[in-house]
Write a structure and sequence with these properties.
Helix content of chain A: 10-25%
CATH architecture of one domain in chain B: 2-Layer Sandwich
Helix content of chain B: 25-40%
Largest sheet of chain A: 7 strands, mixed
CATH superfamily of the largest domain in chain A: FAD/NAD(P)-binding domain
Number of domains of chain A: 3
CATH topology of the largest domain in chain A: FAD/NAD(P)-binding domain
Shape of chain A: globular
Largest sheet of chain B: 8 strands, mixed
Number of helices of chain B: 13
CATH topology of one domain in chain B: D-Amino Acid Oxidase, Chain A, domain 2
Structural class of chain A: alpha/beta
Largest interface: A-B, 50 and 60 residues
Radius of gyration of chain B: 23 Å
Number of helices of chain A: 8
Distance between the termini of chain B: 45 Å
Oligomer: heterodimer
Strand content of chain A: 25-35%
Chain lengths: 426, 492
């Protein structure tokens, strides 16, 4: 069986960054396995611009952003296999892949980086009522049809969910001559980035129906219409508020779920909030030597942050591989828990090893509701460590807090993040 | 001139076509849809009931029992899925518990293996059974199958043996003169046949209405809609047995059913509908199903729901199947009101039609001559890459590299399997037909990743434009126009 230093599953933005970083940090045998025919992942179908503002300080289209990493990759001796699907992964870091050239092959990695990305929630996952005709897709599938395959998917479009891909597709379909008759969002606030709300809906006068959801779909063969209704605080449809739209196409932008079938097979524990692996500050999962980054870990809103995370995971995978912890006599320590408390959906990392604290430790998190003038409260073993004032917080925008090593030192049990809303009493 | 025209290609029409194709007869099957097995055969609980439930003396009782005993060998022969899982009929209170001994007695009378278990014993076998369950009747011969796979395999073999399958052929008139039926379809095609078998499911009443002179049509279909959830497949499903509630007058009730592909079905409810095209899901019914299954089991992972669907039962007024030659129209055979346990009874229903009706005709002018074909062809079992050994898989990929390209990541279906199903006798021509045959799109992404690739493969293999690929029916178009010329792009 062929053995590699680091094997990266997925050649998208997270995987590419991880591979390059692992190679730079001394791993010679690095392998990227990618199921599509080209590297680049979902970036390749994101032909709109807006990528790279943080990392490259310029606005790139998705394929151009991927190109930057592919250029870097060319300067390395990283091995890549495209058109290759990983079908099994075990906790001893043996994986099986298949492609038309080599057939079914087993390889072993000293370290493995999971970078499989995410999938879209479907009509079935949200149990949408109504008939089941053609013309209903997730926004990302429609995006692939338009931007990769070169086909239009409809003429009159309704969009459910205000996730970013849905917003981007509202603009894209409009630019290709379709009429987007409306966007419905079940929450009382948008789930997309503010800039996408502005540039994709407002600029094109596409109506957004907040606190609305689909309550019926019509059409026997192809979709013919959509019924939406307003929802109450418990997100239940209110009778008598129905509105009907003629539409031959429905695009769903109702959330993304990390793609963790392989992680589960390897026995990796998942966080029930993110649906991604539980990780330490080294991006290591609960299976030693298997790391995770990008949307397979938690869904990001900007690719720049995916690349940064990939880079970190690649670095730690290389470190793991070179230090060879199997040979080291490490004192086993209990990790401390990073807790997402009131108002916070999740915090990454989920666990901290105190003996491996970094000089600067980033914490990524999302709030569960939009807030103005709120305070982020960080507690160390139940004692106040830090408060951060925020003018604006929203679930669609990932927040980052960096703590210094000295701030974290001496921690014994728990680091906790919570939100204190304006006007709230303790 | 055909000897027999079968109207409807569901599980019943498919068994009939298959069983009749063994004889030297000219047979045609007329199906209104663009693929077979698209109505009740596609939307049901996929259970081969043991046969304990139907009322004694009914056709349902005898044919269910006989059918359930035939299935295992039928499925093995065809190379399709079948699994004996056993089943619990679970009583949630003492009133229900009191009904179990009678059920057991009826089963024993029919020689159906069964046993009575206390709630605790039952939970030892099925740890996720609800704590509320006080007692269960277990029926170990209950099995599950993959219904449309069976119909497709049967029809494929039938067509290999000269049965003519005509798709998109909706029958609009049937006239009988002398000893011949003239059947006209919506497309304007005329079929002439000595016999007609009405296996039109929920439309069986309408098909008979075309030919009967009776004032009151004895076949009355009041479709009852049932809605379901499908849960993502797991290494081990929440329950390993079929879990039924204690049946009521309304029917078998809402069930938990493990599937042959390790998914879990939850459903169905039962609502009368007047519109036979009304197969949509409703929020109310789905909520009812969720509530009902929680009386039977705990820890149900609702977050694993990947799909909902609904189907219509061809329920009649009499409460039993109607399988007989029409009293006013000789040689017109009704196989109607085939609701539950229709699937479980299907092979026996077909045998009954052949042996108890067709072969018993004595009238010299009408009688069919049953001579077995000498060179009856068996279907080639499709390759399921997932089931092969490592060595076999690698040998296969070396010979046919397409078996090394995974198209559907959720169900791990290769391009080779998709190409094979497109070019088989009953070739798939639509996205749904591919999905029904080899399962890309059946998994948790519901085709989000694989559908564009399936469209591409279909277009390439059938030498047509992706614009002409349908989801299912001729009107169910997917793509509306080319954006910048498919050929210019490397992906197409």
């Amino acid at each position: 069986m062929q053995e590699y230093d680091v094997i990266i599953i997925g050649g998208g933005s997270a995987g590419l960054a991880a591979a390059i970083e692992a190679y730079k940090n001394g791993c010679e045998k690095v392998l990227i396995l990618e199921r599509e025919k080209e590297l680049g992942g979902i970036l390749l179908q994101c032909i709109h611009n807006g990528f790279g503002l943080h990392l490259f300080h310029e606005e790139l289209a998705g394929p151009s952003y991927a190109e930057r990493y592919l250029m870097l990759l060319k300067e390395t001796k990283i091995e890549t296999k495209t058109d290759t699907m990983v079908i099994h992964l075990s906790k001893d870091k043996i994986l099986e892949y298949v492609n038309p050239k080599e057939g079914y092959v087993k390889v072993k990695g000293k370290a493995i980086v999971l970078a499989m990305g995410c999938r879209e929630r479907t009509r079935g996952a949200i149990s949408l009522p109504g008939s089941r005709p053609s013309g209903i897709w997730t926004a990302g599938t429609a995006q692939r049809y338009l931007n990769m395959e070169g086909y239009m998917v409809g003429k009159r479009v309704f969009i459910l969910g205000s996730g970013d891909i849905g917003l981007i597709m509202a603009r894209r379909m409009t630019l290709e001559g379709a009429t987007v008759v409306g966007v419905a969002e079940i929450m009382p606030y948008s789930n997309g980035l503010p800039r996408n709300m502005k540039q994709c809906l407002e600029d094109f006068h596409i109506p957004l129906y907040l606190s609305h959801t689909i309550t019926n779909l019509y059409g026997k063969d192809r979709l013919s219409g959509v019924q939406i209704s307003q929802v109450d605080e418990r997100l239940q449809a209110i009778k008598g508020t129905e509105k009907e739209f003629d539409a031959d196409t429905l695009l769903l932008s109702v959330g993304l779920i990390p793609e963790n079938a392989l992680s589960l097979e390897a026995g990796i524990l998942l966080n029930n909030r993110t649906k991604g692996p539980l990780v330490t500050q080294s991006y290591e999962t609960t299976v030693p030597g298997i790391f995770a980054c990008g949307n397979v870990l938690h869904v990001h809103d900007l690719v720049d942050f995916v690349s940064e995370e990939g880079k970190k995971a690649g670095y730690f995978a290389a470190k793991y591989c070179i230090d060879n912890p199997d040979l080291m006599e490490e004192t086993i320590q209990e990790p401390i828990t990073v807790e997402a408390a009131k108002g916070i959906i999740y915090v990454i990392p989920n666990q901290l090893y105190v003996n491996k604290l970094l000089e600067k430790q980033d914490f990524l998190f999302r709030v569960n509701t939009p807030l103005q003038e709120a305070t982020i409260i960080i507690e160390k073993d139940g004692m106040l460590l830090k408060t951060i004032q925020k003018k604006h917080l929203a679930p669609s925008e990932m927040e980052k807090v960096t703590l210094k090593k000295e701030e974290l030192e001496g921690i014994r049990g728990r680091l906790s993040f919570r939100i204190f809303a304006k006007g709230e009493t303790v | 001139m055909y000897d027999v025209v079968i109207v409807g290609a569901g599980i019943i029409g498919s068994f009939l076509a298959h069983d009749l194709s063994k004889y030297q007869l000219n047979i045609a099957v007329l199906e209104k849809n663009s693929d077979i097995a698209g109505e009740a055969t596609m939307s049901n609980s996929a259970i081969i009931h043991a046969g304990h439930d139907p009322k004694t003396g009914t056709l349902k009782a005898s044919l269910n029992l006989q059918g359930s005993r035939m299935y295992e060998s039928v499925c093995k022969e065809l190379g399709v899925s079948y699994k004996r899982t056993s089943a619990f009929v679970a009583a949630t209170n003492h009133e229900e518990e009191e009904l179990l001994p009678a059920m057991i007695a009826q089963a024993e009378e029919r020689d159906i293996p069964c046993m009575l278990l206390r709630g605790e014993e039952a939970r030892r076998k099925e740890p996720n059974l609800s704590e509320e369950i006080v007692a269960v009747a277990e029926f170990p011969t209950t099995a599950i199958c993959y219904p449309w796979e069976i119909a497709l395999a049967l029809m494929e073999e039938a067509v290999m043996n000269q049965v003519e399958l005509k798709l998109n052929e909706k029958v609009i008139t049937i006239e009988k003169d002398q000893n011949t039926f003239q059947i006209l379809t919506e497309k304007g095609n005329q079929y002439e046949s000595r016999y007609v078998i009405n296996a039109a499911g929920i439309y069986a009443d309408e098909i008979y209405q075309l030919v009967t002179k009776l004032e009151k049509n004895p076949i009355v279909i009041h479709p009852r809609k049932g809605e379901y959830f499908v849960l993502d497949r797991e290494e081990k499903t929440l329950v390993e047995r079929v879990i039924y509630p204690v049946p009521s007058e309304k029917g078998k009730g809402v069930l938990l059913v493990p599937t042959t592909h390790n998914n879990l079905l939850l459903g169905p409810n039962s609502t009368m509908v007047t519109d036979k095209e009304e197969k949509g899901n409703t929020t109310e019914a789905l909520a009812y199903v969720k509530e009902a299954v929680q009386k039977l089991a705990k820890n149900i992972p609702f977050e694993k729901i990947i799909r909902t669907f609904a189907g219509l039962r061809a329920s009649g007024e009499s409460g039993d199947f109607i399988i007989e030659e029409a009293m006013d129209v000789p040689c017109f055979i009704n196989v109607a009101q085939i609701e539950s346990p229709g699937l479980a009874s299907a092979p026996a229903i077909s045998e009954y039609v052949l042996h108890e009706i067709l072969m018993k005709k004595e009238d010299q002018d009408q009688k069919l001559i049953f001579i077995q074909k000498e060179n009856y062809l068996k279907r080639r079992h499709p390759i399921r890459v997932k089931d092969l050994s490592e060595e076999e898989r690698n040998k296969l990929v070396k010979e046919q590299p397409a078996y090394g390209r995974v198209i559907c990541r959720c169900e791990q279906i290769t391009e080779g399997e998709i190409i094979d199903t497109i070019h088989r006798t009953l070739g798939a021509k639509t996205v749904k037909a591919v999905k029904k045959r080899v399962r890309p799109g059946m998994g948790r992404c519901q085709g989000g990743f694989c559908e564009p690739r399936v469209v591409e493969i279909l277009a390439r293999e059938l030498h047509i434009s992706p614009l002409d690929i349908r989801m299912d029916s001729p009107e169910s178009l997917l793509l509306t126009r080319e954006l910048w010329g498919g050929d210019k792009h490397a992906g197409i």
